[in-house]
Amino acid sequence: MTKNIANTAVNDHVSLPDYKRSTLVSRIVHLGFGAFHRAHQALFTDEVARNSNSDWGICEVNLFGGEELVASLRAQDHLYTVAEKGGDNTLVKMIGVVTESLHPEMDGVDAVLEKMAAPETAIVSMTITEKGYCADPATGTLDKSNGLIMTDLANPTSPRSAIGYIVQALRLRRDRGLQPFTVLSCDNIQENGHVAKAVVLEFAGLVDVELQQWIQEQVTFPSTMVDRIVPAATEEMFTEIAELVGVSDPCGIACEPFRQWVIEDNFVAGRPNWNLAGAEFVEDVRPYEEMKLRMLNGSHSFLAYLGYLAGYPFISATMADPAYKQVAFDMMMKGQAPSLNMPEGTDLENYARLLIDRFTNPSLKHQTWQIAMDGSQKIPQRLVPSLQYHLNQGSAFTWQALGIAGWMRYISGQDESGKAIDVCDPMVNELQAICDEHGLNVSVVPALLAVEKIFPASVGQNSMVIDAVSTAYQSLLDHGARTTVAALVPKQEAA
Ligand code: NAI
Ligand code: CS2
Known about the structure:
Blueprint: E1 25-31, H1 35-39, H2 41-51, E2 56-61, H3 67-75, E3 80-85, E4 90-95, E5 98-102, H4 104-107, H5 109-116, E6 123-126, H6 147-154, H7 162-175, E7 182-185, H8 192-207, H9 209-218, E8 224-227, H10 235-245, E9 253-255, E10 260-264, E11 280-282, H11 286-309, H12 315-319, H13 322-336, H14 348-360, H15 368-372, H16 375-382, H17 384-393, H18 398-410, H19 428-438, H20 444-449, H21 457-460, H22 463-479, H23 481-486, H24 491-494
Parallel strand pairs: 1-2, 1-6, 2-5, 3-9, 6-7, 10-11
Antiparallel strand pairs: 3-4, 8-10
Helix pairs in contact: 5-7, 7-8, 8-9, 11-13, 11-16, 11-18, 13-14, 18-22
Residues 188, 227-229, 296-297, 300, 370-371, 378 line the site of D-mannonic acid.
């Protein structure tokens, strides 16, 4: 028998689940057993079980990929470890709240639908990446030209997309006279609950208008702000976790110590007391979401594109460059913060300083390439709304313009030394066709700004935006990313 964390004694310092796992019930079905969920929602739920007599367990589902991960999870009794890596110490926790797992390729589509439609399922939560919502990124409405959506609309009882699964599972519940579940989006999307609701309702309306009405009346879609930096797993990380735990854990994941979860308290069939693990329940999550998406994710994307182009493989490496560190802070405070409308007493400067420290954490190897992925889905959340704010105010949007120019230079598919870039994006074909037509030439800027799925016309067709992004793009061509970023450091600080 292969040794794993379920059948081998682990090192003493690993904090183990101290509750009775056999009493847990799969009340949550989670779509997207990726890196983030393991270190965030599952860990919060585990902590609730440690701090109370909660019976909330999770059935994990991966709709796309990750079959090996699911097989490994099953082999180790659905246990796995999380290593929280601070600057100088690491805490290792074993998570025990995962009760079962399903995968349509391994268990069939119906097994997943039946679990979602089971009477005890109270929440269907999701970390399926921005593209999983099959929404038009600029408007947040259902993208009916999306291949998965077209397939699911033609065959709604055997879905492939997360949206198709949710609608079909809700149809089964309605037909069986069961109460609905809450749909809980935990992805980095502005008003993620509203976007989830919009795409689910629109899809339902196209297959069954009465079902659409039932969902509208019965189902809630609370929005959430989720935060914890969880880089994708690497071989180096697995080796480190094996040393810390005493046995290898193919489902283990490392992350930063910081975590935050702000949730709209609007659940139709109950919820765990995630507040016992530090989550905050609020009436309106929007200001928190906007703060995080613009200050953290906006500057993260900026650092990812301009860092990658400069040859920095990790965010911590870009932060070791004093110019990048300074410009990231300025972008947060001067570029993004002014566009926010926060509750009184929010200290945005303190928040920005914390973000700079988190990005600098040298023990996290967060690849610039990973964050650069799926830019077409991220830029509309992270850079466009603040740019729009500055246009309305008549104020400078230098950082947003350079961030967008960095993305355009990155998706050309060729780095500054002429090496190929592996561009991952659901719109890669459309975007690279535009890039190929123009080559590395500033004429690509208006052509990309005209892609309305990413840039609303009020931004993409605005001559000030076209000029500012073109100037930044030309500088990237003429001088490269490092020099272009350094030129944004205010003179006295550069001296
Ligand atoms: P991951 O790559 O480890 O996992 C992605 C998950 O999404 C997988 O479970 C996969 O099955 C699923 N997925 C991918 N495409 C899908 C589709 N079209 N439909 C349905 N499911 C799909 O990524 P990770 O790190 O777990 O991040 C996932 C999302 O979580 C991010 O896109 C972001 O929205 C959110 N998030 C991630 C953070 C991080 O630091 N990793 C922090 C905060 C939020
Ligand atoms: C990152 C985020 O991959 C990305 O695009 O910006 O996943 C980031 O790490 C998280 O939002 C932090 O909470």
